[in-house]
Design brief:
about 75% helix, elongated
Length: about 200
C-alpha cells in the first residue's frame, strides 16, 4: 500500500495547473460557498476548500479537482493513522472484534487511497468534450464512490463493538473523512452535469 503523499502535494499540484496563484476575490469565495450547497456537508465543504479560492477561480472542474486533492490528503492521513494503531491493537487486550475491524480498516483505507489517486490522475488528464469528457468523469465518479464505500465499510466493521475507546476514536475520525469524500464526489457530479452533449 502506497500512502506516502508529500506535504506540499496539493500546493505544487495547483502551481502546476494554474500557474502563479492570484489573490482570491469575494466572487471566488462566493462561488465555492454556493457550490458547496449542493453537497451533504456544506460547512465542511466550504471550510476545507475556501483556502484554495484563488486557484479555483469559479471553475467547477478546478473545484472538483481541488476537492479530490484535499480528500486525498485526509484519506492518506487516516490510512497512516489506522496503519499505526493496527500495529498496537492486541487480540487479547482489545478483543478479536476490535482487532479484526482495525485490520479491515487498514486494508480498506489502502484501497481508498488508491481509488482517490486514480481519480486525481484522471482529473489531471481530462480532455475532449461531450460524451468523451463525460466518460472520463464517469471513471472518477466510480473511483470516488468506491473510496466512500470503503470508508463506510470500515465503520460498519465496528457494529456490535461496545462504544468508547478505539471504536469511538476510529469511527469519529472516519466520519470526518467520509464528509470530505462525499463532498468531493458531489462536486464531481455537479461538474459532470455542466458537460454539454450533442
Amino acid at each position: 500500500m502506497n500512502i506516502q503523499i508529500p506535504s506540499t502535494f496539493i500546493f505544487l499540484f495547483f502551481l502546476s495547473t494554474t500557474g502563479k496563484p492570484l489573490p482570491p476575490t469575494s466572487n471566488d469565495t462566493d462561488f465555492i460557498r454556493t457550490s458547496c450547497k449542493t453537497t451533504l456537508y456544506p460547512q465542511t465543504c466550504f471550510t476545507s476548500l475556501s483556502g484554495y479560492s484563488s486557484a479555483i477561480q469559479q471553475d467547477p472542474g478546478r473545484l472538483a479537482r481541488v476537492a479530490i486533492g484535499v480528500t486525498l490528503t485526509k484519506v492518506t492521513n487516516m490510512a497512516k493513522y489506522v496503519s499505526n494503531i493496527s500495529r498496537q491493537v492486541d487480540y487479547g487486550r482489545n478483543g478479536p472484534r476490535v482487532a479484526a475491524a482495525i485490520h479491515d480498516c487498514y486494508s480498506l483505507f489502502g484501497d481508498a487511497v488508491d481509488d482517490i489517486q486514480g481519480s486525481l490522475r484522471q482529473m489531471r488528464r481530462l480532455n475532449g468534450t461531450g460524451e468523451d469528457l463525460r466518460f472520463q468523469l464517469s471513471n472518477v465518479q466510480t473511483w470516488m464512490s468506491a473510496a466512500l464505500t470503503n470508508e463506510e465499510t470500515c465503520t460498519d466493521g465496528f457494529e456490535g463493538v461496545a462504544d468508547g475507546g478505539v471504536k469511538s476514536d476510529v469511527c469519529g475520525r472516519v466520519g470526518k473523512v467520509k464528509e470530505v469524500t462525499s463532498n468531493a464526489l458531489a462536486l464531481v457530479n455537479s461538474f459532470a452535469d455542466t458537460i454539454q452533449t450533442p
